[in-house]
Amino acid sequence: MQGMDPRPDLVLGADGLTRPVWAATDPLLQAYYDTEWGMPVRDERGLYERICLEGFQAGLSWATILRKRPAFRAAFADFDPDVVAGFGDSDVDRLLADAGIVRHRGKIEAAVGNARATVALRAEGGLPGLVWSFRPAATPRPRTAAEVPTRSAESEDLSRALRARGFRFVGPTTMYALMEAVGIVDTHLVGSHRRGSSGVWPEPDGRA
To answer: Binding site: which residues?
Structure first.
């Protein structure tokens, strides 16, 4: 039977796995938490997609973005930076009429501009190398939701670095969420079944 885990802010599921409250009930969020969130993303397209989706999420729930993710992928050519970099005004108008995505002109234009910035970054070694260069020396070990940071010195530096290269909707808080999502930091709560699972930040002696 599902119930509260004795550790704060964790829920013990019927499957015997412990998850944070936000991932404990909605099947979509649970699947995302169990299989994707916090796992390393080191390819250009994957990072470009996640930068865009984190930008679209600003002011909305992540569940909303996940439900719209298939439509986002269809609308943005599966987040192929080379294709999206070629989008023009007619494409922006088309996207603004697409009810399947978040119809926000600034965010849509930022996604197009971010594709162009991603392509341009190849001359400097590429987006993955830049993003992962801001991996900190240590990761947080939060035991409660209140202990999970919302930004860091590294996310502030990453935000500045991306903005300097033409990226938009990449503020420090948004970039910290990106760093959590792609494994650069591990903010799974201590006691969660996913803590240390990325391989980037193994738990000391394998213990939660």
So the answer is: 188
Binding residues for Zn(2+): 188
Q: Report the phi/psi class of residue 185: left, alpha or beta, with left for phi > 0 and alpha for psi in -120 to 50.
A: beta
Residue 24 main-chain phi, psi, to 5 deg? -95, -20
pLDDT at 8 over 80: no
Q: Per 3-state DSSP, what percentage of the chain is helix, strand, and coil (rounded to 5)?
A: 50, 5, 45
As to burial, measured by CB atoms within 10 angstroms (0-12 exposed, 13-18 middle, 19+ buried), residue 194 is: buried
**What is the chain's alpha carbon radius of gyration, rounded to the nearest angstrom?**
18
pLDDT digits (tens, 9 = 90+) for 39-96: 999 999 999 999 999 999 989 999 999 999 999 999 999 999 999 999 999 999 999 9
pLDDT for 203 beyond 70? yes
Q: Which residues are catalytic?
A: 32, 54, 62
